[in-house]
Write a structure and sequence with these properties.
Layout: H1 3-23, H2 28-45, H3 51-85, H4 87-98, H5 102-120, H6 125-136, H7 141-151, H8 159-166, H9 173-182, H10 192-226, H11 233-236, H12 239-259, H13 265-282, H14 322-340, H15 346-352, E1 355-357, E2 368-370, H16 377-391, H17 396-408, H18 411-429, H19 445-457, H20 461-476, H21 479-497, H22 501-514, H23 520-530, H24 536-565
Helix pairs in contact: 1-2, 1-19, 1-24, 2-18, 3-6, 3-16, 3-17, 3-18, 3-23, 4-14, 5-6, 5-7, 5-8, 5-12, 5-13, 6-7, 6-23, 7-10, 7-23, 7-24, 10-12, 10-22, 10-24, 12-13, 14-16, 18-23, 19-20, 19-21, 20-21, 20-22, 20-24, 21-22, 22-24
């Protein structure tokens, strides 16, 4: 069967999910089971995968989904624990003292605080933590979700202490070592570690324009689609504050990427940027002179709000000191750093504690595990929620209500994620090299789509390289997994078209980052924590446009680096 036809068949489950959720406004709880069924049928009928193997892959996806759901539950539990302890209202009161302007709050929480959390934890954690904070400050839930999903892009290449680069590119080691041994033009690296460092360096250059453009664009976006004026201009008027925040992040981000390595750019950039911008906002540095708002809730559109409605015209009261109120988030940040840096010794121990599911349904290649202590949902989220009971002096009734409310929120995301991640597992497992399982030796479904795009793009590949990385994140829910899927393919395209390998692979790492905006896993998770389960399609309709803008800007950067600047560097 031709690669074009395979690509078309592989795209059917994605197209079905998009049509149902975006076009027909179905909730993910109904759309994803049908998309999974279409994927399973394609695997059995076209790829000729054994039905038992497809079932095993689906169960593998369910196990993986449980890990994601633990993260979602932990994020929801933190939110409800702070709600019933009085800590959230205290934080709201403190933010009003910094700035009551949602534009400033979006930058501090969605742009910088989330970047720090991404650098420490990754795996969809930032949006799941930041969106409820914005919701609590009076953002419409849909606006809070969109802002946090879109901003969870530029830090993702270096998320979870550099995991997408360090782990995601591991299958390139043999190709890199071969390139070092044979030499040749453009090979200015002498080891896999040096190559990873280069990927980090060039990734920051590709991200750089959008790190500055994105906050300005998104503030205009929220004032255009969620403001009473329905105009871009109120958001754009905060451009000075956006540039101030971008520079505060960029300086440490670039320094650590270029002179240290891929582990810390987002983590340190987010932490230093957050401190600098909060300090500046308190002193009015670059803060807009006018104060903008979303307007009265009576004029909000119906799909902006789900089951959780922000307080309106509420005078927030501080129930404790700001230090005590923020202590749970401080502890989350500290614990994430301590448990994610290998040199500190805890990462290896926690990651090794797993509930294994080996040889699922008897298939040796189908395995999964739940790293129950390494998941952010358990350590630190659930752990910190328990500690908060004592820190905030919570009464038993409030603790019970926090846990009860958190469990009630898990029904819809559980259904959606089980089928969404099962679909992903079939996608990834469809290209197995075992002739008994894949008798036609077809490429995996994602690789078939990428091959087809490559056959059309030709020398214009630099424009499309980032979008392929974005496709990987959209399908798999992970920049790391996107890199694992497509890094070798991107290397092959660079070799075939005589393009700089480090530039094209960096484009993959960057594309996997901005693909998080439209990733169904992340969207389902964020919908769960802000009470928008069933509104996944509405979010994709909003996040698609910044995704497209980001991809086009990155494509332009990759083209310039491939054909204009890079040849002169060697």
């Amino acid at each position: 069967m031709s690669i074009g036809l395979l690509a078309l068949i592989a795209f059917i489950p994605i197209a079905l999910a998009l049509v149902l959720m975006v076009g027909m406004r179905w909730p993910a709880t109904k759309a994803m089971p049908l998309a999974w069924a279409a994927c399973a049928l394609g695997g059995i009928l076209i790829w000729q995968l054994p039905a038992g193997y497809v079932a095993a892959l689906s169960l593998q996806g369910v196990v993986t989904a449980i890990s994601i759901l633990i993260i979602v539950f932990g994020a929801i539990l933190i939110l409800h624990t702070l709600k019933y302890s009085g800590g959230m209202e205290t934080i709201q009161c403190g933010f009003q003292n910094i700035s009551a302007d949602p534009r400033v709050q979006a930058i501090i929480i969605g742009y910088l605080f989330a970047a720090f959390i991404e650098g420490a934890a990754g795996f969809g954690t930032p949006a799941a933590l930041a969106a409820p904070l914005l919701l609590a400050l009076g953002f419409p839930p849909l606006a809070a979700a969109v802002v946090c999903l879109v901003f969870n892009s530029f830090p993702v290449t270096f998320g979870a202490v550099g995991t997408p680069v360090i782990l995601g590119l591991k299958f390139l080691r043999g190709l890199v070592e071969q390139a070092v041994a044979t030499g040749g033009a453009g090979v200015n690296f002498d080891s896999m570690e040096a190559f990873n460092h280069l990927i980090g360096q060039w990734s920051t250059i590709m991200h750089l324009p959008m790190i500055i453009i994105l906050p300005i664009f998104m503030l205009g976006f929220i004032s255009r689609f969620f403001g009473p004026e329905r105009s871009w201009m109120p958001g754009f008027r905060a451009w000075k504050f956006c540039v101030f925040a971008a520079v505060a992040f960029i300086v440490p981000y670039l320094f650590f990427a270029w002179f240290v390595g891929p582990e810390f750019p987002s983590l340190i950039g987010g932490l230093i940027g957050l401190g600098v911008v909060v300090w500046g906002a308190r002193r009015g540095i670059a803060v807009p002179k006018d104060t903008w708002s979303f307007g009265p809730q009576s004029k909000w559109e119906e799909d902006w709000v789900g089951t959780v409605r922000p307080e309106e015209d509420c005078k927030f009261e501080a129930h404790m000191s700001q230090f005590r109120a923020w202590m749970p988030y401080v502890l989350i940040g500290i614990i994430l750093v301590i448990t994610r840096i290998p040199e500190l010794g805890l990462k290896g121990f926690l990651a090794a504690q797993k509930i294994p599911f080996n040889n699922i349904l008897g298939y040796e290649s189908v395995n999964a595990a739940i790293a129950y202590l390494y998941l952010p949902g358990t350590i630190p989220f659930i752990l910190v929620a328990l500690l908060t009971v004592g820190i905030h002096g919570m009464k038993g009734g409030n603790v019970s209500r926090a846990w009860s409310d958190s469990f009630k929120k898990m029904k819809n995301p559980t259904i959606a994620l089980f089928f969404a991640v099962a679909l992903v597992s079939i996608f990834r497992g469809s290209g197995i090299g075992d002739a008994a399982l894949n008798p036609n030796s077809y490429p995996s479904m994602p690789l078939a789509m990428a091959d087809f795009v490559a056959s059309i793009a030709g020398q214009a590949w630099p424009i499309f390289a980032g979008f392929v990385g974005g496709l990987g994140s959209f399908i798999t829910g992970s920049n790391t997994v996107s890199d694992l899927l497509f890094a070798e393919f991107q290397w092959g395209m660079a070799s075939q078209l005589d393009l700089p390998h480090q530039v094209i692979v960096a484009a993959q790492a960057v594309g996997g980052a901005f693909g998080n905006m439209i990733c169904i896993h992340n969207i389902v998770a964020v919908c769960a924590v802000v009470g928008l389960s069933g509104q996944e399609g509405a979010i994709i309709r909003k996040t698609f446009w910044p995704f497209l803008l980001y991809g086009l800007v990155v494509g332009l950067m990759v083209t310039l680096m491939s054909y204009v600047f890079m040849p002169n560097l060697f």
